[in-house]
């Protein structure tokens, strides 16, 4: 036996590394096992951070090419240096992952480099060495879901990982799946010049989000040039020398057709990753969808083995994983933390952005909850007009009897930042009137939030 710890966390993504740091802050002796060459997990290496770097760079490109002239800014001819854009993305990732190494050193978290395997409760093997721990935390994240008939080679048929690494702008990119990844990376490559077609199985985009927002999102992205094939499934992909031939069929069944493209991005969701962890041997149960089964307090069925993040139930989001990491560490230290799953925002970082927290109108209807809706368009917001960014609206949903905020849905400029106020409002159990009576700076986009709150009571001032 090499060494023993209070806690060994397996996986150094936002769930695992945050759990390790918080446990160390609370005085525990902590190790974190990571098999990737760098810390930070999917999010920092091949997810949140590189995708946001490319979204930012490609938006600058689109602004320079198509938007600045309207503001009276002449930039002459605009060129694309994709190699530089990709190199910058690499620099952003590298500085972030090194930051986690620094934090591990600062908090005295030991990084055990290699693949971790649970050999028995309280024991983890890494590179042939066995370590003991009072508590083992599974934070091994997720991987992209494969589609039968569509073989990924990460060159012509890519997941998000290959989709972040393309060295040339594809002539025609087909995205399978109209969710977070498809629309974010689809936006990146459309802005850089690709023709982009999104093939979605359902009759709408971002299925988990509010229906009205989904419809507006489709219209706005359509106006930007993205094409959609809804209610359609892909049944095969044949890679040839000059492109990929995709076979499409109506989702409900019917005549097949062929769609030719240069690159295919497969983005139909992610699934828990538990390969080579030794869960079966350790007796850790999975649920019907392959997620590590937990009891609502991160405990698996095996005492001393816990799980957090993408590998368990709930939205596959970095900040959800982080909240769970903190809560579990505090729980192991004898505290009584709580994660409010009703107040976790979701943001699609396209432009405009789409952001949501709490329940959708469809969810309220389905559970028979009476509600009042207040909506305010960015066309009536002075700051949005000054920016030249008037697409979208804020929509708030409040209990029809108590006025308590139940859901907030925004499509518009900086929606991902605006939603924070509403996540806080929901966390504090605020009413729509609380938001409406709060002074919001003028002229700011946040005034659209205040106006939507006033609209819940039928008294917006600027429409
Ligand atoms: P992960 O980040 O997946 O980390 C798990 C780690 O465990 C990995 O590094 C893996 O190598 C390691 N590991 C697995 N098994 C072992 C083992 N046996 N031994 C040692 N190490 C192991 N979420 C957001 O909130 N905002 C975003 O903008 C966003 N953008 C995204 C963009 C893309 C393209 C993708 C793919 C995802 C994005 N996500 C985003 C989702 C986010 O990345 C995940 O929700 C988050 O990373 C989950 O964190 P985690 O700690 O559970 O797992
Ligand atoms: P997703 O679940 O967001 O979207 C998948 C889409 O594919 C859905 O619209 C679904 O209906 C569709 N689909 C499923 N099977 C299909 C099929 N056979 N053919 C056509 N369409 C099909 O999953 P995505 O985009 O892969 O992202 C995975 C997860 O990663 C997200 O759910 C999210 O949790 C996380 N993520 C978060 C981001 C953010 O917070 N900004 C950005 C990127 C990813």
User: How many β-strand runs?
Assistant: 22
Helix fraction bin: 25-40%
Uncertain segments are: none
- CATH fold-level name of the largest domain: FAD/NAD(P)-binding domain
Number of helix segments? 14
Measure the end-to-end span.
Answer: 70 Å
Considering the protein shown, what is the CATH homologous superfamily of the largest domain?
FAD/NAD(P)-binding domain
Ligands bound, unique: flavin-adenine dinucleotide, 1,4-dihydronicotinamide adenine dinucleotide
Q: Please give the CATH class of the largest domain.
A: Alpha Beta
| Number of self-contained structural domains | 3
> How does CATH name the architecture of the largest domain?
3-Layer(bba) Sandwich
Enzyme class: oxidoreductase
GO molecular function, one term: dihydrolipoyl dehydrogenase (NADH) activity
EC number: 1.8.1.4
Keywords: Disulfide bond, FAD, Flavoprotein, NAD, Oxidoreductase, Redox-active center
Give a quick set of tags describing it.
single chain, 463 residues, alpha/beta, FAD/NAD(P)-binding domain, Enolase-like, domain 1, 3 domains, 7-stranded mixed sheet, 5-stranded parallel sheet, 14 helices, 22 strands, globular, binds flavin-adenine dinucleotide, binds 1,4-dihydronicotinamide adenine dinucleotide, Lipoamide_DH, disulfide bond
């Amino acid at each position: 036996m090499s060494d023993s710890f209070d806690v060994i966390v397996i996986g150094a993504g936002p769930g695992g590394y945050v759990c390790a740091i918080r446990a160390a802050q609370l005085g525990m002796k902590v190790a974190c096992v990571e098999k990737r060459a760098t810390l930070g997990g999917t999010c920092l290496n091949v997810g949140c951070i590189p995708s946001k770097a490319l979204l930012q760079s490609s938006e600058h490109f689109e602004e320079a090419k198509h938007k600045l002239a309207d503001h009276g800014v002449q930039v002459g001819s605009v060129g694309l240096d994709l190699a530089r854009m990709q190199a910058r993305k690499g620099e952003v990732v590298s500085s972030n992952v090194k930051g986690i190494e620094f934090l591990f050193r600062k908090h005295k978290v030991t990084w055990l480099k290699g693949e971790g395997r649970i050999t028995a409760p309280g024991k983890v093997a890494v590179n042939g060495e066995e370590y003991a721990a009072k508590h083992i935390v599974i934070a091994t994240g997720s991987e992209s879901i494969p589609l039968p008939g569509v073989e990924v080679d990460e060159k012509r048929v890519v997941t998000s990982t290959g989709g972040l690494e393309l060295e040339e702008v594809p002539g025609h990119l087909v995205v399978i799946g109209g969710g977070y990844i498809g629309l974010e990376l689809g936006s990146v490559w459309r802005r850089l010049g690709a023709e982009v077609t999104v093939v979605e199985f359902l009759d709408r985009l971002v299925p988990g989000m509010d229906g009205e927002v989904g419809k507006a999102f489709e219209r706005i992205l359509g106006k930007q040039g993205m094409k959609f094939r809804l209610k359609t499934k892909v049944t095969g992909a044949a890679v040839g020398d000059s492109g990929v031939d995709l076979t499409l069929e109506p989702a409900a069944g019917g005549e097949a057709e062929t769609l030719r493209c240069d690159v295919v991005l497969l983005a139909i969701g992610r699934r828990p990753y538990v390969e080579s962890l030794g869960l079966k041997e350790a007796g850790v149960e999975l649920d019907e969808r392959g997620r590590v089964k937990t009891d609502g307090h991160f405990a698996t069925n095996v005492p001393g083995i816990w799980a957090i993040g993408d590998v368990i139930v709930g939205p596959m989001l970095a900040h959800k994983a982080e909240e769970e990491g903190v809560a579990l560490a505090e729980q192991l230290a004898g505290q009584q933390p709580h994660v409010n799953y009703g107040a976790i925002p979701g943001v699609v970082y396209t432009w405009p952005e789409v952001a949501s927290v709490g329940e959708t109108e469809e969810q309220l209807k389905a559970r028979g909850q009476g509600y009042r809706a207040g909506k305010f368009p960015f066309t009536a917001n002075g700051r949005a007009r000054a920016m030249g960014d008037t697409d979208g609206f804020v929509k708030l949903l409040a209990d029809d009897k108590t006025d308590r905020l139940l859901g907030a849905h925004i499509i518009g400029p900086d929606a991902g930042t605006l939603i924070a106020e509403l996540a806080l409002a929901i966390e504090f159990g605020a009413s729509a009137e609380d938001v409406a009576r709060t002074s919001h700076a003028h002229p700011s986009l946040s005034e659209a939030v205040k106006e939507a709150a006033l609209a819940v009571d039928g008294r917006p001032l600027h429409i």
